Amino acid sequence: MEIPNWLLKQASLNPNRVAVNDGTTAYTFAQLVPLVAHRAGQIQAQTDQPRVGVMTHNNLAGYLAALGVLAADKTIVWLNWRLAPEELSRQIGDAGLDLVLVDDQLADRYYGGHRVLCSELTAGTAPAAVLTPTVDLDAVASIMYTSGTTGQPKGVLQTYGNHLASAISSSLNLGVLPNDLWLCVAPIFHISGFSILMRGLIYGMGVRLVNHFDAQVVNQILEDEPVTIISAVPYMLKKMLEDVQANDHCYSSAFRLVLLGGGTIDRATLNACEESGLPVVQCYGMTETCSQFVALSAEEAPYHLGSVGKPLFTTQLRLVGEHHEIEIQTPALTPGYLNQPAKFAAKHDGDWYRTGDVGHFDEDGFLYVDGRLDEMIISGGENIFPAEVENVLRQYPGIQEIAVVGRNDQQWGAVPVAVVVSKQPVDFQQLEAFGREHLAHYKVPKVYLQTDALPKNASGKVQKFRLQDLVANA
């Protein structure tokens, strides 16, 4: 099925509405068309391949390059600039790329022979492309490589139809207002960032780009500018909250909410946000579904702290098996993994997609995500989900980061072990006592290790498989 080209449609419907700005420069939808067409023409002159890599910060140069790839009728392959050269080369090879567009600020991050800097793209002299008036909803718009916390990343195919279904479901939950301005500080090479760009084109909504996350900078923008929504992950929210509490920020009257995804968060932080006037709406999604498929509404959020909400309008969800694995059906679901059909097939239970997460509903039908099935620890026949334990122990004074993993045990089968990051020595006996006040005793780790940093991948997710070696002999 084909529908009107999103950019051209917005340029027709809302030509003078600001589509994107970075705090210094702004472009309307009408102004974007020739800029994007020029870049599309340069891309078409550079490669005949169907996919083009993009490596960029959240800036206008990267935004225009990405839209140029789409306007050239090619697929964006998002490349995470934090990856090691070997990892980047592997993904570039897997995607069959012979053109990688690189933000000038990241020129030292990639030196491949098919690199073209964004400034070189802008300076190109090839004729501008004639933009295709429609988009095919089955065509793959973007490919993102999953984080790979337990193995090699998979290239997730994301169609225009996937992005559209996700945007529609989100709009039916959060609403879309004429003055909406979505602050994009989540990296656009992640779905939490790129989905904002796509929603801007679908909704006719402004996007405020922020190069990188700094809590003070973000809070000042929310105070001074008419931003209505920001997407954040728990780390960002906690830093924003600390700055709000320390500097007494008062957000603009236009501000509506923080859409929180990207992992679990402790109830104490959510309570503090509510007390500080920081409206948080939790959601649950993944790269494979082009962002959230479960979310709270703004009205429900204060009354269901800790829940990720209810399945969005186009989502079907069920809990399956002894451990209540979350399975879904949604038109936002990827059609597959690049070059890995067997792995995608293995994720299915008939027509249902197995998320690998475990959860439960409360009596009102709100979903709570308990943790990852592959991280679950079975100790003496009891199921322990590390995320639940981490969220409690993280509230202990002085704890910066904490990760809980299982260690084989002859008596219990496995026992939970906590690895802690703190600026000062931690009294593990006191930490264990704190845990026993808030958790069932079998969930409380009996062994604790303190380290300078937790091993993480380029997306900032803890690589728990690397912690297994650390705790094996603890």
Automatic annotation (TrEMBL):
In terms of superkingdom, the source organism counts as Bacteria
Task: Give start and end of each AMP-dependent synthetase/ligase domain.
Answer: 9-337
GO process annotations (BP):
menaquinone biosynthetic process
Q: What EC number(s) are associated with this protein in UniProt?
A: 6.2.1.26
| Family matches, as SUPFAM superfamilies | Acetyl-CoA synthetase-like (SSF56801)
Q: In which pathway does it act?
A: Quinol/quinone metabolism; menaquinone biosynthesis; Quinol/quinone metabolism; 1,4-dihydroxy-2-naphthoate biosynthesis; 1,4-dihydroxy-2-naphthoate from chorismate: step 5/7
Its UniProt entry gives the catalysed reaction(s) as:
2-succinylbenzoate + ATP + CoA = 2-succinylbenzoyl-CoA + AMP + diphosphate
**Pfam families associated with the record:** AMP-binding, AMP-binding_C
Query: What GO molecular function annotation could you give as one example from this UniProt entry?
Result: o-succinylbenzoate-CoA ligase activity
Q: Which InterPro entries match?
A: AMP-bd_C, AMP-bd_C_sf, AMP-binding_CS, AMP-dep_synth/lig_dom, ANL_N_sf, ATP-dep_AMP-bd_enzyme, MenE
Residue span, AMP-binding enzyme C-terminal domain: 388-461
Provide the alphabetized UniProt keywords: ATP-binding, Ligase, Menaquinone biosynthesis, Nucleotide-binding
Role according to the record: Converts 2-succinylbenzoate (OSB) to 2-succinylbenzoyl-CoA (OSB-CoA).
User: What family does the Swiss-Prot or TrEMBL record give for this protein?
Assistant: Belongs to the ATP-dependent AMP-binding enzyme family. MenE subfamily.
Q: What is the protein's name according to its record?
A: 2-succinylbenzoate--CoA ligase
